[in-house]
Amino acid sequence: MHAGRLRQRDDHDHHGDIPAGRGRRCMVSRAAMVYKGATGAVAAYEAKTAEYDAHCPADARDARCHWALAAVVAAGCAALIVLPNVYRVHLLYDRYRDAGLVAFFVLMYVQNATMCVTELQFVVYCLGLCLKFCQINGEMSAIRSDTIAANRYPAVLMSPCSPPGAATGRPPSADSVERLKLRHQFVSDSVGDLNALYGFQLGASLSALFVMALFDIYAVVSGVVETAKGYLFFYAWVFQYAFRFTVIVITTHVTTKQALKSKILITDINSRLTDKNTKEELQLFLQELSSRSVNFTTLDMFIINIRLITSAIVTGTTYLVILFQFQ
C-alpha cells in the first residue's frame, strides 16, 4: 500500500510495485550465503587458499595491486549505493513523514547493500585467484623465454657441462613444470569451489540487476519520470546496476582468461626443442588443461563471461520493444 501510494503521489519514485520482488531476491540470496557461512564452507575455502599462500606467497607488489583494485570497487559501490539511497530516504521522510514507509525503503536498501557486500566478497576472492593464475603464467613465461634462448644456440645444449641437473638425470625445468602443473590444478579446483559457494548468489545478483535496470529504463522512456530529481535517481540507479553487473562479469572473465593463457604458454613451450623429461611434463600439463574447464557459471545455467554483457543488452532491448508494443 505504501509503495502504491508513493507511486501515485511522487512521480520521481518509479519503482512502485517492484521493490518487494527485489527485496525477496536479496533476502533469499543473503540467507543462502549465511547458511553456507554457518556450515563452514566459506571458512574451509579461506583455509584452503591460506595454505596455498603459505607455500606460494604472492609478490608484495601484486598483493598491493589486488587490494587496491578491491578498494576501488568497494568505494565505487559505496558511492553509488549509499549516497543516492540516503538522499532518497531523506526526501521520502521530508515529504510524507510516514515512519512505516521510510522503514520499508530503509529495509529494502539495507537488503540491497548486503547483497552488494556478497558481490564484493566474491570479487575479492576472484581477484585473488586471478593473481595466482598470473603468478603461474609469469613463471611459465620465464620458462618459455629460457627455452627460446636455448633454441637459438642449440650447440650449447650439446655441451657436456651445459644441462644443469644432468647428474640426477632430471633437469630443473621438468621439476618446475611439474610444480606449476600442481599449482595450476589447485587454483583451478579453487575456481570450482568458489563457483559452488557463490553460484546461486551470482545468479540472483545478475538477474536482479538486469531486471531493475530494465524497469528503470522502461519507466523513463514511457514517461513515468518527469522531474529533475526523478532523472537524477534514474541515472544513479542505472549506473549502479551497470557498474555492479560489469564488475562481476569482468572479474570472472579476466580470471578465466588467465587460466586459459596457461594453455597457450604450455603449447608454445611444448612446440620447441626441450629435453625428454620436460617434454613429458609439458604434455601431462597440457592434457590436464585440456581435460579441465575453468569457468564461472550460475548453477550451470549459463557461463559468466564478457559475452554476457552483450547478451543482456540484446535481451533487454528485445523486452523493452515488447513492453512498448503492449503499452
What does it look like?
28% of the residues are buried. The N terminus is likely disordered. Helix 2 crosses helix 5, helix 4 packs antiparallel against helix 8 and helix 7 runs parallel beside helix 9. This protein starts with a helix and ends with a helix. It has 327 residues and is mainly α. The protein contains ten helices and no strands. The chain is elongated, with a radius of gyration of 26 Å.
Tally the helices: what do you get?
10
Radius of gyration, in Å, reads: 26 Å
Give the ordered list of helices and strands: HHHHHHHHHH
On the 0-100 scale, what is the average pLDDT? 80
Q: What's the shape?
A: elongated
Q: Quote the beta fraction.
A: under 5%
Low-confidence stretches: 1-21, 158-168
Q: What does the oligomeric state look like here? A: single chain
Secondary structure: number of strands? 0
Instruction: Outline the biggest β-sheet.
Output: none
Structural class: mainly alpha
Terminus-to-terminus distance: 24 Å
Helical amount: over 70%
